[in-house]
Write a structure and sequence with these properties.
With 244 residues, this protein is an all-alpha fold. The chain has helices at 3-8, 10-44, 49-62, 65-75, 80-84, 88-92, 95-120, 124-132, 137-152, 154-167, 179-190, 195-222, 224-237. Helix 7 (95-120) crosses helix 9, helix 8 runs antiparallel to helix 9 and helix 11 runs antiparallel to helix 12.
Length: 244
């Protein structure tokens, strides 16, 4: 390992970290905001919207992120009306924007289905209690269903965040210098085999460790009542001491 060479190019890796985090968390933010109304429509089984949203999530969850990014970055420019539109110059001709759009649509599809399941699994007792107090359907959704669904979706969503971070390496294939892109550049520039990739792996490991700690804190804060309930169930079903 040529550690001095890695230190010499540390500023490039820090720039790669910035690109990776920017793409990952912006796509998660935009995709999450889009996923909430889509998940509500899916959970309510709207006659018109539900099949359309199902088709969208099926396509984006059923195809690789790399293919989606390539289709947008390399394929959009094949259409004359796209090149003539106002979006071509500032957005669709830029690798960063193409990556952000593809990542956003991808994570939105996964988050939509994740939230749909959480919404549909809301305990009936909570909904019935809200109805008994006279809440309107919109009030029940805003004050009962969605907060409960968001809390229970935290563990599964942590996996989606990590998967999106790992999937962001696709950006390096369309000329963006993210973490992996810098590692590949370092290996190619100096004809190395390990230094760039190992440094990239270490950086991804550090970021994933930080993400897991944040979500561990969120679980302890917002899912504490479920832990108490689970502990109570375990105590009730555990056999007395000395009984097998």
């Amino acid at each position: 390992m040529d550690l001095p060479l890695i230190v010499q190019n540390l500023d490039r890796f820090l720039h790669g970290v910035w690109v990776t985090l920017g793409l990952t968390f912006l796509s998660l933010a935009f995709g999450g905001a889009m996923a909430v109304p889509l998940a509500i429509a899916r959970a309510s089984r709207h006659r018109v919207l539900n099949p359309l949203i199902w088709a969208y999530t099926y396509v984006f969850r059923g195809t690789p992120l790399l293919v989606q990014t390539y289709l947008l970055y390399y394929g959009a420019g094949q259409f004359q009306f796209v090149r003539d539109s106002w979006l071509w110059g500032p957005v669709l001709s830029q690798a960063w924007w193409c990556a952000l759009i593809a990542f956003t649509l991808n994570t939105c599809a996964y988050t939509t289905e994740l939230l749909r399941g959480a919404v549909m699994d809301t305990p009936k007792g909570e909904v019935e209690a809200a109805i008994a107090t006279g809440m309107s359907p919109r009030g029940r959704l805003r004050r009962i269903v969605l907060p409960s669904a968001f809390r229970r979706a935290i563990p599964a969503y942590s996996n989606e965040v990590i998967f999106m971070l790992h999937g962001s390496v696709v950006a390096s294939t369309i000329t963006l210098q993210d973490i992996l892109g810098v590692g590949r550049w370092l290996n190619g520039r100096y004809y190395l085999a390990y230094e760039g990739l190992i440094t990239a792996a270490v950086l991804y490991f550090i970021i994933v460790f930080a993400i897991t700690r944040v979500f561990r804190w969120l679980e302890r804060r917002y899912l504490r009542h479920l832990e108490r309930r689970r502990d109570a169930v375990v105590r009730n079903i555990a056999p007395p001491m000395g009984v097998k």
